[in-house]
Specification:
It is built from nine helices and four strands, in the order αααααααβββαβα. It is mainly alpha-helical and 210 residues long. It starts with 5 loop residues before the first helix and ends in a 12-residue tail after the last helix.
Length: 210
């Protein structure tokens, strides 16, 4: 059985890639829409047939590719990419109809409620409960609970007062935040979340794995 040499195969693929790019550059708007629709349908079919392990493998590969691309970015290209993503988000939200806007807001609210559900549901601080309960709790424990009673508004981490600071928004706001946080002019954040939001990344902060 004939086996194509690697160098010949590489040249063949390069010619095919250039030819495909030229074809895309010269196609009309109708042809482009038809091609994109065909690609979406094919991708939709593949996604419907993939197994959970195949899906996890695909998502992992996509994350690795994004990381490699971001590592190669210069500060200027990174800023340009984030600005373009932000503009696309603004265009997408501006083109929303009332129904889709309400659906998006409801999805944001659901995410916000999940985060809020993780917050301690107490009417008064733990140190106050200790002090009023008559439990056998040392003074140092009460002082500790009294001191560490501040929460980051994004990751809900419990912090000392000197571990949080205020981030004031100017023009740019991360679009991954729930609508309730986007409506605020400033947020009380832990140092990690403040650094993440200040970097203008387009993905939400991830919890560190223990």
């Amino acid at each position: 059985m004939y086996k194509e040499p690697a160098t010949q195969r590489k040249r063949c693929l390069e010619r095919a890639r250039i030819k495909y790019q030229e074809k895309k550059a010269n196609e009309g708007s109708e042809a482009k829409r038809a091609r994109l629709y065909k690609n979406r349908q094919a991708q939709k079919k593949l996604r419907a047939e993939e197994t959970p392990s195949m899906k996890n493998k695909r998502l992992l590969q996509q994350r690795e590719n994004r990381i490699k691309q971001r590592d190669k970015e210069t500060p200027e290209s990174g800023e340009a990419r984030r600005q373009a993503e932000h503009e696309r988000y603004l265009q997408r939200t501006a083109a929303e109809n009332p129904e889709s806007r309400e659906a998006r807001k409801q999805a944001d609210l659901d995410i916000y409620n999940v985060v809020q559900h993780r917050l301690p549901k107490i009417e008064k601080p733990i140190w106050k409960i200790y002090a009023d309960s008559g439990w056998n709790v040392s003074a140092s424990e009460i002082e500790f609970e009294k001191a560490i009673n501040t929460f980051c508004e994004v990751c809900t981490k419990r912090c000392y007062p000197n571990q949080v600071s205020i981030l004031k928004f100017s023009n740019y706001k991360p679009n991954y935040l729930p609508i309730e946080l986007l409506q605020k002019k400033q947020l009380l954040l832990c140092h990690r979340c403040k650094t993440h939001l200040s970097s203008r990344k387009t993905t939400a902060p991830q919890n560190k794995k223990k």
